[in-house]
Amino acid sequence: MAGLRVFAPAKINLTLHVTGQRADGYHLLDSLVVFADVGDVVQLHPADAWSLRVDGPEGGEVPAGDDNLVLRVARLFPDLAAALTLTKDLPVASGIGGGSADAAAVWRGLCQMAGRDADAAQLLQLGADIPVCVPSGAARMQGIGEAVTPLAGLPALHVVLANPRVAVSTPQIFRALARKDNAPMPDVLPVFADAAALCDWLGTQRNDLQAAAEALEPQITQTCQALAALPRCLLARMSGSGATCFGVFATAQDAAEAAAILSSARPGWWVRDGALGSMRAQAAPRPLN
Ligand SMILES: C[C@](O)(CO)[C@H](O)COP(=O)(O)OP(=O)(O)OC[C@H]1O[C@@H](n2ccc(N)nc2=O)[C@H](O)[C@@H]1O
Ligand SMILES: Nc1ncnc2c1ncn2[C@@H]1O[C@H](COP(=O)(O)OP(=O)(O)OP(=O)(O)O)[C@@H](O)[C@H]1O
Fold first, then answer.
1. CB within 8 A of 226, min separation 6: which ones?
2. Catalytic sites, residue numbers
3. Atom of ligand 2 at shortest distance to CA of 128?
4. What's the whole-model pTM score?
5. Does ipTM come in above 0.90?
6. Whose CB has fewer CB within 10 Å in the chain, the N or C terminal residue?
7. Which residue intervals define the domain GHMP kinase N-terminal in the entry (predicted)?
C-alpha cells in the first residue's frame, strides 16, 4: 500500500467555559471549537517497525521518542507498523492542540491503513482534546472533552494566530483558576447571519482560562491587545490554555494584511493567517504521491 499524508489542523477554542470539576480533578467544559487551515502534517509509510522523524519549523521542541503522542496512538494498532514523519508548524504547548491534532491525524491515517474504524473512546485518556480533533469539524465540546456535538452553518471566518513564544502548562492554568463553576453557553446556540454577528455574540461569551493565564504570563495580554489593534479585527481572544491568541476577520484579505503588519511589528512571534471553521475534508488522509 502507498503511504498516506494527513493534515493536522490547529484547534481553536472560540469560547471556553469552565463549568465544574469532576472528583478526579478534571474540569467540565463547554467550548465552541473550530479548526484552522494552519497545522502540522503527518506522513505514514508502511514499514516493518514503528519509527518517528520530527521536522518542520516547530519540530525542535517536540519529544521524538515514545512520549510523542503520535507513537502513543500507534501503540493502539499492534498489528500495524509504519515509518512516521511529523512536520510541525504549530508551537508546542500553545493552546491550539498541536499534540492532540497530531494524535488525531495519525489515528485517521492508521484507521485507513487498517481498513477499519477503531474505538476512538480510548483516545480520551491520551488527551482531552483528541476526540474533537478526530473529525476536525466545527463542534460544541462538553464534558472533559469527550462529548463532541458537530455544528453546521457557522459563517466563514478568517483568522490571525499569534503566539508570543511562551510555552504554557495546561494543568498549571487549570490549577490557578479562581472559579470553577462558571455559566455554560446557552443550551441552543443562536444562528449567525455573518462573521460580524458571530463575533458580536462571541464577545458576550468567554475563555474562562484567560484571566489565570494572563496573570501567569503577561505577554498573553500584550498578544491579545496587539491582535485587537489590527485593522478590521472583529474579536481577539486566547485559545485553550494559551498562550496562542486569535484575531478574527471577515475576509481572507483582511486577515492576510493584518498578519503582515503583526509579523513585521513582532518578528519574534509565531504569526499565521488562515481560514477558520470545519476542516473535515482537509483533514482526510490522502495517498502520498
Ligand atoms: C484546555 C483545552 O485545550 C481546551 O480545549 C483542553 O481541555 C486541554 O486538553 P489537553 O491538552 O488534551 O489536556 P490533557 O492532556 O488531557 O490534560 C492535561 C491536564 O489539563 C487538565 N485538564 C485537562 C482537560 C480538562 N477537561 N480538565 C483538566 O483539568 C488536567 O490537569 C490534565 O492533567
Ligand atoms: N506530537 C506532539 N506535538 C506537540 N507536543 C507533544 C507531541 N507529543 C507530545 N507532546 C507533549 O505534549 C505537551 C503539550 O503540547 P501540545 O502542543 O499538545 O499542547 P497544547 O497546544 O497546549 O494543547 P491543548 O490546546 O490541547 O492544551 C508538550 O509539553 C509536549 O512535550
1. 162, 262, 265, 266
2. 11, 129
3. 26
4. 0.97
5. yes
6. C
7. 68-132
